[in-house]
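Example S7 (structure tokens).
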């Protein structure tokens, strides 16, 4: 198993950045009880070391699954973890970000490209779930017809917030409130937590916060 912490502590900046991104990407799969393959881990190591590019890493993962003759239910879960991890790694090392509804749906589409047929599509049906993060309580999420308005409202409220007027405790509290509110809307049929996490990291970086990915890598919900 690759030791991402070693890359993060001891490596030059480029390796450190990629190590953080992979650590976060893989850590976030635990949200849905998913674990990537050993092949993905080895591919991540090659990417961090500069032996291959992220484009080549993505192609290797796609080819790996295309070459499989037999597929089991476990393979489907591992495939999801591998593809989502690779896509998140790419997103977390890009320098572009849009704090908009389109930006949010774009992140979902890019994370789950090759995984879900509905990647990037706002759900058009109502859902309830028992969430283990809420100790098994059943949650009724925002109804489908109200999703766009709910997201736009939360984003607009966040745009108007003045971070210069709060101390560190107030800052942490506000961010937690914003993230939980966005998550509870449950914009998509699946993949909401991973999408919200990536969106949050990129957003905070875009407004000047030095956000390390291990905020989510080591403490995935």
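Recovered sequence:
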């Amino acid at each position: 198993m690759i030791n991402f912490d070693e890359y993060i502590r001891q490596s030059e900046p480029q390796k450190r950045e990629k190590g953080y991104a992979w650590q976060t990407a893989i850590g976030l799969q635990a949200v849905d009880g998913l674990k990537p393959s050993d092949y993905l881990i080895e591919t991540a190591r090659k990417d961090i070391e500069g032996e291959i590019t992220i484009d080549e890493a993505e192609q290797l993962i796609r080819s790996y699954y295309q070459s499989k003759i037999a597929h089991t239910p476990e393979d489907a879960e591992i495939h999801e973890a591998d593809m989502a991890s690779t896509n998140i790694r790419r997103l977390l090392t890009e320098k572009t970000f849009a704090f908009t509804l389109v930006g949010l749906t774009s992140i979902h589409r890019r994370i789950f490209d090759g995984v879900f047929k509905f990647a990037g599509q706002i759900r058009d049906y109502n859902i309830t779930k028992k969430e283990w993060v809420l100790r098994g309580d059943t949650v009724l999420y925002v109804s489908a017809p109200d999703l766009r308005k709910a997201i736009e409202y939360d984003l607009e409220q966040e745009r108007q917030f003045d971070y210069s007027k709060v101390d560190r405790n107030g800052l942490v509290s506000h961010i937690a409130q914003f993230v939980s509110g966005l998550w509870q809307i449950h914009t998509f049929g699946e993949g909401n937590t991973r999408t919200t996490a990536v969106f949050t990291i990129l957003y905070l970086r875009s407004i000047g916060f030095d956000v390390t990915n291990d905020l989510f890598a080591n403490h995935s919900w």
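Notes on this example. The mean pLDDT is 89.
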